[in-house]
Amino acid sequence: MDNVIVTQHLSKIYVQDFLTFESGRPRLNLRRETKRREALRDLNLEVRRGEIFGLIGPNGAGKTTAIKILMGIHFPTRGSAKILGRPLGDKWAKAQIGYLPENPYFYDYLTGGEFLDYYGRLYGMGRSQRRAKIPELLERVGLTASVSIPLRGYSKGMLQRIGIAQALLNDPEIVVLDEPQSGLDPIGRKEIRDIILSLREQGKTVFFSSHILQDAEMICDRVGILHLGDLVKIGRLEELLTAQVSEFEIVASGMRAEAIAEVERTSKRTLRRADDVLFIIERRGDADAALAKISACGGTLLSFTPRKETLEDIFLKQVGRGTREVAGASRGEVA
Ligand SMILES: Nc1ncnc2c1ncn2[C@@H]1O[C@H](COP(=O)(O)OP(=O)(O)O)[C@@H](O)[C@H]1O
Ligand SMILES: [Mg+2]
What global pTM score does this model have? Predict the structure, then answer.
């Protein structure tokens, strides 16, 4: 198998020094404190040539840290990584990468065309090369009509797309996008998704991070789930998502209270609404019994939906419900 990115035991502990003041006699005491935060622990992953790989996880999981280490912006505390067979920091390997950071800063007085031209020069592209490439990229990300508009007039989705165009200027083999869909509305997210899919069609490898599970689920060949710095799961989507039905959703109306109570005993979750009731049932036999009960008690079956496991189900199983916001702050600190 042809791996374009390989990480081995990649780990990062951020160390922050800060001063605290204590008012004491005879004078003010200054104390130096050190905070260590373990952001990434023993990350081992491989990204294969030509695939779309999604690194997913809640805020604070360590996605940006992993990406910044791969991009040579941060140094790992332990472990190593190879990009296209070369060690981190290798200039040739860097030239084969296109990168869009999580919160890019753009000079917003430049027009879209000027912005790409400026970056083209930073890449060392000649004038004729830039003249050929820039219109092609604008077309690609759907911004041809906005070439003369200053970036301050761009929407968030347009900025993300011009940012992706920037990452494609050098015709990279690997495209690394940190949360490209974050903060976008459904249309903006779809536009980014379509661009990512078109990159794979061109034979490029896309490595992107996201906390938006649905977007990852729609386009990734493989995903890695990161949580509190640990890679808790990695694999092909089809392997992670069992093809089996994991539960049945039944909605019925006109059921008598006793019948509802009886079905509720085998139901994982029961939701009573104004006129109808929804049951989530895990076992096939229990679901069949519930259907029989509904018709026996004179109720009406409104819908019966076998549900397959989604990426969100797997994610919640690994990450745990309700821990998304606070988790990074509590366990990440090691001293
Ligand atoms: N420069 C930094 N200094 C100290 N801590 C950091 C720094 N960058 C990130 N962290 C901490 O590392 C953890 C992982 O952050 P990050 O990699 O940005 O996660 P994600 O991109 O998945 O949201 C968080 O707890 C975050 O607060
Ligand atoms: Mg991030």
Answer: 0.80
Same structural domain for residues 256 and 225?
Answer: no
From first to last of its 335 residues, the chain has per-residue pLDDT tens of: 599 999 999 999 999 888 887 776 777 778 888 899 999 999 999 999 999 999 998 889 999 999 999 999 999 999 999 999 999 999 999 999 999 999 889 999 999 999 999 999 999 999 999 999 999 999 999 999 999 999 999 999 999 999 999 999 999 999 999 999 988 888 999 999 999 999 999 999 999 999 887 888 889 999 999 999 999 889 888 777 766 677 889 999 999 889 999 999 999 999 988 889 999 998 999 999 999 999 999 899 999 988 877 777 777 777 764 443 333 333 444 44
Are residues 230 and 41 in contact, defined by beta-carbon separation less than 8 angstroms?
yes
Residue 324 lies in a domain: no
Q: Range of 102's domain? A: 3-240
Which-ligand-closest: CA of 224?
A: 1
- DSSP letter at 144? G
Is position 101 within any domain? Answer: yes
Do residue 262 and residue 166 come from a single domain? no
Tell me if residue 194 falls in helix, strand or coil: helix
In angstroms, what is the span from residue 314 Cα to ligand 2's centroid? Answer: 21
- Nearest-CA residue for atom 4 of ligand 1: 14
Residues 47 and 185 in one domain: yes
Determine which residue's CA is closest to atom 7 belonging to ligand 1. 14
The residues, ordered by sequence, that sit 6+ positions from 65 with a Cβ below 8 Å of its Cβ are 12, 39, 40, 74, 229
Residues 149 and 36 in one domain: yes
**Nearest residue by C-alpha to atom 1 in ligand 1:** 14
